[in-house]
Amino acid sequence: MPERFSEVLRAAIRQVHEQANGAAYIGKLLSGELALADFAELATQHYFLYTALEEVADSMRHDPVVGPFVIDGLRRVPALAEDLDFLLGPHWATTIEPNAATKNYCQRLRTVARRWPGGFVAHHYTRYLGDIAGGQVIRAKLRTQHGITGAGAKFYAFDTIGNTVLFRRHYRTLLDSTGWDELERAQVIAETKYAFALNEAVFAELDRDLAG
Ligand code: HEM
């Protein structure tokens, strides 16, 4: 039986995943050095990124490759809007800005999606599967470090996708049934690794701008 692409992809990102987890910013987040204002800044960058991700997803809903990945329960922008409302107050929408790394990330996502559905899936996978798994660690930090469990942490609460273990299993079957040939699989892996690099660049900029 041929190897499942989802497993190949998961193995292929192991190293970049470890590298991203080793980012100085993530270290500070995990060790409790981030003020609530810093979490608000992270949510701000997420807001711009997910707006791009979900606008593109909506526009590709009928694409045969992307369509099955456009799952309404994943949608994060409404949760982020609630989080920002709580973290920054009612005027957040007119005051927040993406940082340079986030702008670059959004631009790449939009450009890739225009010419290549598989490239968009690489970005979709990197963010959503990452948030469903690793995001739970950040959610726990918001709770233990800042006492936030509802608004302010909704981005990390995937209440609308059912059991997350089953969801991740379903997502893997989607990755396995795209029909990509070897070349395209390699290209999707490369774009996924690039997505990790784009995330690291966002962390690096957030780290430089820490409120502390
Ligand atoms: C606080 C830092 C992080 C922690 C603690 C963390 C933790 C985890 C854990 C526990 C898993 C599940 C692994 C498994 O099922 O084998 C996972 C998967 C994943 N993470 Fe992270 N992660 C972090 C940061 C990131 C970042 C920054 C990204 C990229 C933006 C990311 C992307 C992913 C992806 C795409 C998966 C799914 C892999 C797969 O099952 O195919 N993670 N992470």
Tell me the CATH superfamily: Heme oxygenase-like
Q: Please, what is the average pLDDT?
A: 96
Radius of gyration: 17 Å
Name the ligand types: protoporphyrin IX containing FE
Secondary-structure element pattern, one letter each? HHHHHHHHHHH
Shape: globular
User: Could you give the distance between the termini?
Assistant: 53 Å
Instruction: Give the total of beta strands.
Output: 0
What structural category do the secondary elements indicate? mainly alpha
Low-confidence runs (pLDDT<50, min 5 residues)?
none
Sketch the major β-sheet: none
Helix content: 55-70%
Whole-number count of domains: 1
CATH architecture classification = Up-down Bundle
CATH domain topology: Heme Oxygenase, Chain A
CATH class equals: Mainly Alpha
Give the count of helical stretches.
11
Task: Report strand %.
Answer: under 5%
SSE blueprint and pairings:
Blueprint: H1 5-12, H2 14-21, H3 24-30, H4 36-59, H5 77-88, H6 92-95, H7 100-115, H8 117-133, H9 135-146, H10 164-176, H11 182-208
Helix pairs in contact: 4-5, 4-7, 7-8, 7-11, 8-11
